[in-house]
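Example with several molecule types.
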Amino acid sequence: MNIYMLKKEIKYLLKNPIFYLGIIIVICTLVLTLKPYLNLYENVREENSKIVYGDEGIISGYIPTEINEQRKQVFNRIYESLIEDFDVSEEEATDALNKIKKMHTQEEIAEYLHENYGISERGVDNVFESYMEKHATKKEMQEYLRETFSKSTFPESFSFKYIDYLGISLIYLSIITFVLIFMRDMKKDIFSLLHTKPISGVSYIMTKLLAGLIPICVFALIMTGIFDGIANMVAPKYGSEMELVSIWVKLALFILPNIFMIGVFFIFITVIFKSILPTIPMLLVYATYSNMGKITESGYKYIPNPLSIVVRFPNDLGNNYIPTWTIINQSILIILAICLLGISIKLWKRRRII
Amino acid sequence: MKCNFKISLPLYKLLYSMVFMFVMALIRPTVTPIEILTVIEPNLCFLAIVFVADIYYCEFRENRINVFYLFPDRLKYKAVVQRFLIDFVYLVLLDLIFYWIYILFQNSNLFTKEIISIYGYSILMCFMTVLFFASLSVTMVNFFQNMWFGLVISLAVWFVFNTKVKEYLPTVLNIFAYKITPEINGGITPYFFNRALYMVVGIVMLIMNYLLVKRSPMRKVKEGKK
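Resulting structure tokens for the full complex:
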């Protein structure tokens, strides 16, 4: 690695206004997406207003409905639907209702209604989903948050959301950063000239990689420090204890390996095509692949893809979890990145002219 | 023409555009045929921005601009338009082919009566939106005589139309807008008026390039000052 070149690259990068445009994009994304989690009482309903059910999420003031309440609402809806949409008599509908009230699982109910009245199982699932959450009052929200954050702290739950959005927005910053680092070197005359200089392939590629990674990592560390501070300041408002470490652990496990992979992937594609242009759509494809879930029987669901450069944490605030295989995926990602780095160095040595 | 063909469609461009569309078709799950439009159109527009960005800028990058600048203005503009049209036709061809590849890769639910009419929509939509984004990209790059500045601006416009920011725009200004039609086309139908409007803007920008290629290269002026 060439320290002089590294310093010069970082200096050029910091002088370029487009790099700051990338930083502004990340800051705006984080502020806009995370701000609602810092004021969860903003969208709660008035104390005496009508209860509304839905699946809008905690930032819209919705909290999970209690099982008994959800079942009661679902049964009422099914009863009305049987009479109005399926022309079932009131007696028969009451009889069906009494039968399904005795059933314990959603699957049993769906199967019974499908077999006897032709209601689609997906339709029954949708009815259950539409009563999954209810619009809470401030008091209900306070109770829910106190209960949720007695099991895990608010900063810990918030860190899932923070890492989620930081991972996505850093892809854009990484693309911009590495484009700025490589754009001078990929000109026809400069590319050939660089190969005549007494600088080894390892030194060149490692310097370029570090010149991109260092500013991104420093920026990610600063942002994490700021959001960790904010989350801990807000925690007492939700009846939660303070917790400083978890966000940093997640940053180390789920962000840094991904940035490393993005950087290496960028270099790899750039060296293959001897141009930066193809790398931009390729990274978009990779990011789309990483962010994609799968269509299952119960509908679209986020399932992490192997070698993905984005780690998402399903569910709403307080119920997030780390998907299975994620840690193994991150380990394989690092190993693959090291392999791609080795190949990129070899390719750089071999490709002397554009 | 042959020379412009080689410049605007080098092998690496063909390769990465194919890989881009192919992988996108593999990884993006869809349930209804109309969803294919919502995947192909924006992604093809993204590809168009990157794909056509250097059709004139390559003269700067390859250090040929000093000779190219000596050509008559009419010939310079003709070369740019020819290169643009070659890339544009290629991108529309990608849409024509990858629509079916998409259908083949996804589940069999997509084989419905509607796929032919949606194919027609797909061609028409991509013709209009790709023309706008490709023209925007070329114009921005030529205006700034800096490929990365032009690309960043064009991609920023694309991101505006593909993020929540578009919700703040009136429907007529949203290039990727759809209207809700519960009875037909699986629930949504594209708005063609917006796309046609942007296509006209794209054609105007392409014509404006006549003025942009007439300008002397900025880099030459800077070097002269030094």
